[in-house]
Amino acid sequence: MRSxxxxxxxxxxxxxxxxxxxxxxxxxxxxxxxxxxxxxxxANGKIAxxxxxxxxxxxxxxxxMKGLVVTPGLVDIHVHVFHTTGVKDAWAGDNSVSPDAFSxxxxxxxxxxxxSSGWRNFETFRHTVIDRARTRVFAFINITGLGxxxxxxxQAVEDMKPEEVARLAKKHKDVVVGVKSAHFEGPTxxxxxxxxxxxxxxxxxxxxxxxxxxxxxxxWQLVTQKLRPGDMSTHFFRGPVPIADKSGKVYDYLKQxxxxxxxxxxxxxxxxxxxxxxxxxxxxGFYPDSISTDLHTGxxxxxxxxxxxxxxxxxxxxxxxxxxxxxxxxxxxxQIKHPEVGHLSVGAVADIAAWRVLEGEFGYxxxxxxxxxxxxxxxxxxxxxxxxxxxxxxxxxxxxxxxxPEGYGVRPVESxxxxxxx
Length: 422
Ligand SMILES: [Zn+2]
Hints:
Elements: H1 2-15, E1 20-29, E2 34-43, E3 46-51, E4 62-64, E5 69-72, E6 74-79, H2 91-95, H3 99-102, E7 108-118, H4 122-128, E8 136-142, H5 162-171, E9 176-181, H6 190-202, E10 206-208, H7 219-226, E11 232-233, H8 252-260, E12 263-264, H9 275-283, H10 297-301, H11 307-316, H12 321-326, H13 330-335, E13 352-365, E14 371-385, E15 388-392
Parallel strand pairs: 1-4, 1-5, 6-7, 7-8, 8-9, 9-10, 10-11, 11-12
Antiparallel strand pairs: 1-2, 2-3, 5-13, 13-14, 14-15
Helix pairs in contact: 5-6, 7-8
The structure holds zinc ion (ZN).
The site of zinc ion has 6 residues, from loops.
């Protein structure tokens, strides 16, 4: 009798053990080899269950995900979000965007700023952007003192200080994920070598934007000889990168670099992606390890646009959807050594994106306005971070407004003061 009473008392609680249940979507979670119709339950901001049938009454809120693809929240490891430099004509300041303004509406829950700040201004970046964004923001620190403030500091060899970068990386271990070498125009390896030295001292990877391609330091040498396992070459589909020979065959040196553990990142940007290079790479099965945007005001208003567009481009070239999701979630999470994100394992943070896969004819451009037509387009439908709904394109979490309480939207209701009746 007594145990029955306990059972009756605990039932209502147990019945709603989850804050949210997402029902009936096609869950693609490459980390856990899941691709199938699943329900996802969330409790306390974490993934509580992923199963074929989670009863609707187990959630305080239930959202119908039928027809949608449900994935981990995207991890975009090449963005520019240091919009608070306060310096006139600063590249980083004028071209960076505010993370929350661009993340959730495109399914992105984690971003890594790629070297907008250097060791002299990283802490300003941290305090004014990283700590104030709802998006999970990590950073690669630029090997130069002032980062990408303008193109000039990135040439300042005397200001590339591995010890300073490593010191900051250790101090800000929670947000610093690597070292960036970028836009270096000189004929030497100095920028890359100093970044490598900082990476060694702080035990973090480096990401290289090879900048100007000069004969004294060819790209093949960067990826086969200089980069260590886990280091990243971004702007992989940039024009000067030699990807395939005249017959369209992917060069062997790329396969050697990959076998060694070097990672190839898209970093699309405003001028670092040409079909001429992307097409033979994907056709040859040489997929990028990570898909990223190189988000800034130029690329987002140009033919890059956002993560879903960049991912859709890979789909248009024949990269399978599951591989596209892997390269936008679990792969980049591992590359920045943050394996707590990028998947939907039970106990992981509930960072989730839901997608419509639109079918039709869609044009995709490279920065030279080269055009490719694809048959699919990814459209972000919902984004959750730490279990909270932060983007809901079709208001799936809502109800008909007529069913809401009288005077809704006003607290207290007495503050609605009607005009005199006559
Ligand atoms: Zn960049």
